[in-house]
Specification:
This protein is an all-alpha fold and 299 residues long. It is built from nine helices and no strands. The protein binds a DNA duplex (18 and 18 nucleotides) through helix 5. It is found in: Nucleus.
DNA sequence: TTGTGTTTTATTGCCTCC
DNA sequence: GGAGGCAATAAAACACAA
């Protein structure tokens, strides 16, 4: 049996023996006045057990409790809390990944805007030159006919360079972005109203489907799909659905490994269906047919 | 030493499944 | 209806700066 840690403010033994521990009367009489932390050895064994399987069957619980010299109830509580910690960390990691994808996409978008502006000014400049040339030659020979009218040329150029949607004013765009970020963070921190998970999954899906360099389709994802029970799928034995190299690992900061590689957004097909409902589709008179608005994901 | 923030252990209440 | 899961929360234990 692994005794409880001593020397950390423990004033008396918490338990005496595993057998006594399993006797309700003993436990009732010996209820600790204060909470006691588990020893590193106990935590280590619990962690290892959690890595094997994050849910506890009654037999395993009893066995673990016996080995550790704890109440079965304590083992169950530890697993419950451990699952909660794992989930929190996973959400943080998912958020970081999604934010990185978003930032990269935004940079892409900004670069495209710059390109667009540059090309448009080229069109204007070339059109100007053409107009000047036309005027000069018109003066020279008085002949009206040889060149097409500037308007025609310009229209022809415009056929090649698609007229873009009007750009939002930079200040207004920045303010709107700020507001969206605040709203998003509010949802994450308070959990009120919208779902941070769903919002984040939106962004992930957006990246995966239409993003450019930022797309990381290999990122395993947890999307809150139909099976609410599958909360830990994608992580080895965490659930019924297994993705690639799984396996529960311990927290980064406890030195026993990490939960890296598992994500809360796994059901990408469900998410794709969700996405398709939130994008506008090609139809005859839509100039942007088939494209997805950059802004939809925030609105 | 003390105040404060974080982590861990434990409880409560609600929900789902069998 | 009981068992077990989860979210929310309380409270003790711990870490650490001032």
């Amino acid at each position: 049996m692994l005794g409880l840690e001593e020397g950390r403010g423990v004033k008396r033994p918490f338990y005496t023996s595993p057998d006594e521990l399993l006797e309700e009367e003993y436990y009732d009489e010996q209820l600790p006045e204060k909470k006691r932390r588990l020893t590193p050895e106990q935590v280590h064994l619990l962690e290892r057990s959690f890595e094997e399987e994050n849910k506890l069957e009654p037999e395993r619980k009893t066995e673990l409790a016996r080995k550790l010299g704890l109440q079965p109830r304590q083992v169950a509580v530890w697993f419950q809390n451990r699952r909660a910690r794992w989930k929190t960390k996973q959400l943080e990691r998912d958020f970081d990944r999604l934010k990185a994808s978003f930032d990269a996409l935004r940079a892409d978008h900004d670069a495209l805007l710059q390109d667009n502006h540059r090309l448009r000014s080229q069109v204007v400049s070339l059109t100007e030159k053409l107009r000047e040339k036309e005027a000069t030659e018109g003066d020279a020979n008085g002949a009206a006919a040889a060149l097409p009218a500037v308007g025609v040329v310009r229209a022809s150029v415009a056929d090649d360079v698609e007229e873009p949607e009007p750009e939002p004013e930079p200040e207004a765009e920045a303010a709107a972005f700020e507001e969206r970020q605040v709203k998003s963070e509010d949802r994450l921190s308070t959990g009120s109203g919208g779902s941070a998970v769903v919002d984040a999954a939106d962004a992930l899906l957006y990246n995966g489907r239409i993003g450019g360099a930022a797309v990381d389709s290999s990122v395993e994802s947890y999307f809150p799909g139909a099976e609410v029970q599958d909360q830990y799928h994608g992580c080895g034995t965490m659930g019924p659905v297994t993705h690639g190299a799984g396996g529960i690992q311990s927290d980064d900061d406890d030195g026993a490994g990490s939960d890296e590689g598992c994500s809360y957004y796994a059901d990408e097909e469900a998410a794709a269906a969700f996405l398709s409902e939130h994008t506008h589709h090609a139809d005859g008179d839509d100039e942007d047919a088939g494209q997805v608005s950059w802004w939809w994901m925030w609105n």
